[in-house]
Structure formats: structure tokens, C-alpha cells
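Late entry, calcium ion complex.
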Amino acid sequence: MPKSKIHSPRVAIAIMAAGKGTRLKSKHPKVLHEVGGKPLLAHVIAAAVQVVPPKDIYAIIGHEADRVREAVAHTGINFVLQNPQRGTGHALMVAREALASYDCVLVLSGDAPLITPQTITKLRDFHNSKKAAMTLLTAVLANPFGYGRVVRKSAKSDDVRAIIEQKALTPAQNKIREINAGFYAFRAETLFRHIDRLSTDNPHGEFYLTDMAAILGKAKARVVAIAASDPYEVLGGNTRAELVDIDQRMRAAKCQQLMADGVTIFYPQTCVIDSDVQIGADTVIEPFVQILGKTRLGSDCRIRSYSVINNSQVGDGVLVRPGCVLEEARVKAGAMLGPFSHLRPGSEIGEGAHVGNFVETKKIKLGRGSKANHLTYLGDAEIGAGVNIGAGTITCNYDGVNKHTTVIEDGVFIGSDSTLVAPVRIKKGAYVGAASCITDDVPEDALAIGRARQMVKEGWAKTKREQMKTAKEKR
Ligand code: UD1
Ligand code: CA
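Prediction complete; structure with ligand written out below:
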């Protein structure tokens, strides 16, 4: 037969993600707990899609299935429902229909997020090269407590006799430090021919997928193991302490990667940087900074201490002074923020613009080179280029029912302590006198003053003081 006609093995990935996560004592399903700023399951899927296309990936979900599905549906993978959850073996039993037509099924644990595509590929290739019915990924851990232990046929052999769960270990097996990582490759046909032999005769009363090792061995099918090159890749997040440990490892690795790519991070152990964050070279991150979600920072920025930037886009050469909070904001090149600026969702800060201390913005455009430097609230506003917003300016965008827009055109000067009652438009080059309450549109190049004219009463204070003094003496 010509080579092109040989059918290449069809490979599926099944991700076990139906469990409750009892040990977390949480109302949220385990696989939605986050490390590195995103759910455990999202990390596992991100690795899986590097190995097979989403149409060949099946997440087995059960506990809070709707929430889990919703959280990762955008990845385009398939879902299989496991209700009730009767163990990892049962998870594969319910997925039989979805998986039986594949040649090879790679099984991943939805709670072990540090797994890499390289290791999944290595597991698959080793499985194929050994012509095994089942291949398990293992790791040698200093503290193997809680994990299933791998009993090899002999110390040097690839072949595995059994996997023994923590609760069933004999004292001799308790000394084994090679653990079952919870990642497997199966020949689908052999797995599903024998899977019904699993029983619930164990301390948890569950169907253990791990028992397939001994079952397949007895059926004279080959079961082998391969060790992960980095034992930390297989850590599972079963408890809060384990989740925090994984989170720290993931973030430390993220900082190392960013530094390798040219970013300076002082005291990286004090910074919280999520795994999907991107940062350009020569940007400097000072201590105690959080950069979260899908934030992208340009090159040559400086992010000073105590700033928190979430799901925002920041251009090149931006200075973020201490204590700024950015939430779904866009900041163009060369802008300067802070200290203590609060950019709420929909804030777009133009090139070279300045937003200073105690300035809050929401759903605004601030044009190129415009400045709002002190004590100001700008919400639902379109502000042009070269505008100066005086200290204490407020856009009154809310009438108690609806939000309205304030438009401030290019080159406008807004005097300090002005209130701009929306909807209102201040046209090109106009001036607004300090402390004005502006309720009507201001024409181009005009001056608008909306406040009572100043009154001066000569000698009033002196007379008042004398009256008060006399009154006091009479008492
Ligand atoms: C499992 C292995 C253990 C291994 C460890 C590695 C078994 C019996 N034990 O133990 O040998 O050392 O992983 O991390 O498999 N799940 C379902 N449906 C269920 C039960 C679990 O989908 O009915 C999912 C969970 O959501 C989780 C994964 O399977 O993502 C593993 O289950 P978990 O209960 O965490 O197994 P471990 O006790 O960690
Ligand atoms: Ca686990």
C-alpha cells in the first residue's frame, strides 16, 4: 500500500474535570479555581490544543457542569457529562461513546495545570513506540503523600504492575516516591474492552482509572510508565495550599520568562503577573505591582510601585506613577498617569496625555496631549486634543436615571472646580471660567462663566468682629 494510504492514528484528548474538589472546601468547582490568573482547566486546555485540534478534545464535566462549560466554551472543545461522579474510571466509562472511535486516547487531569504540550507529546510518542495498551506519566517527588504510587515490574523496567492509591498502600509501598501523575495514554479499543472490569471495591467506593494498570496487565496487555522530565509539571491542586504553591511556581516562571525577554522586574517575588500578560522589552516593573488578565504593556514603560493593571492595553513609553488602578483601559504611547489615578473600564488615554493624582475616569476619550492633572472625575466624555482640565473638574454624567455625554473639543481650557452638566458640548478653543457650572453648550473660542458675580462688602469683617466682642463682654 502506498504510504499516503496508511491511516495515521486518530488521537483524542480527554480531560477529567467533573470532580467537586472536596478538599478545597469551596462552593466553586475545583477546575475553575485559578492559578496564574485563570482557571486550572483553562491551563490544561491551552496545553492540549497545542497537541490535537479542539474538535478532538473532550472535557468530562459534572459538578457545576454549566459553570465549567461556560468558562471554557470559547475554546471550541467538546464536553461529556458525568453525573454523578463515581471516580476517574467512571469518567472514562461515560466518555466511551465519544472516544471509542479513536485509536489513542490521552487522558489529562483538569486539576494539574502546569502540564506542557511537550510532555503530552512525549507521553504519546513513548506510548506508540512501546506499542503499549496503557502508558502512565510519573514523577519522583520528595513528598509523594496523597498520590497514587507506581509499582514497576522491576526497578529498571518500563513495565508497570500496578498503581496503588495512598489509602491502600502497604508500609513497603509507602516508601515508593514515584507517583502516578494522573496523565495517561490508552489504546482506545483495549481500554474500552476491559473498562467494565473496574470495581468500586476500595476505600472511596469509586471506580479508579488507576486500577486499569493491573487489569490490563492481567489481560496480557502492555502497561508502561515514563517519568516527566520536570516533576513539578504534574502537581495537582487538590487543596488551597497546593493551589497557592502551583500559583507561585507559575508566576515565578512567568517573571523569569519576561526577564529573559528583556523586561526588568525588581523584586519579582513581590509582583503578581498573570500568565497571559504581555510586556515589551525595556519596560521596568517596580516592586509590589500587579499586572493581570490579558493586559499588554508596550516597551520602555515604567510601572511604579503599588499599581494594579487589569485587562488593559498600554502603549510604549508610558509612565505609571505609584498607586494607579487601571481596569479595561487603553493608554497610548508616552502618556503619564498618577500617582493615584483610577482608570475605569472604557478609558482611552491619548498619546502623551497626562492623568494626575486623584483623577477618576470612566468611558472617556482623552485626546492627544490633553491634561487632567488633579482631583477630577471624567465620565462619559469625549475630550479632544490639547485640552486642559483644571483641578477639581467634574463631569455630571448621571441625572439619576440616564448617563449623558460631555463633549470637550480640541484646545479647550476648563478652569478649576468646574461642573459640566451633561449632555453638554464645549466647542473648539473655548474657555470655561473657574468654578463654573456649565449647563448649556459653549460656542467656539467663547468664554463661559457660570457662577454668581463676586460681591465685596468693605469693612464688613471688622464690624462683625466688634459686634461679637461687645456681645461677649455683656454676658
Ligand atoms: C488521582 C489518581 C492518583 C494520582 C493523582 C494525580 C485516581 C483514582 N487517582 O488522584 O493515582 O496520583 O490523581 O494528581 O485516579 N474527576 C472526574 N470524575 C470523577 C472524579 C474525578 O472527572 O468522578 C476528575 C477531577 O475533577 C480531577 C481529576 O479527575 O480533575 C482527578 O481526580 P482527583 O479526585 O483529584 O484524583 P486524585 O485524588 O488527585
Ligand atoms: Ca487531583
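Residues 11-234 form a domain with the Spore Coat Polysaccharide Biosynthesis Protein SpsA; Chain A fold (CATH 3.90.550.10). Will revisit in the morning.
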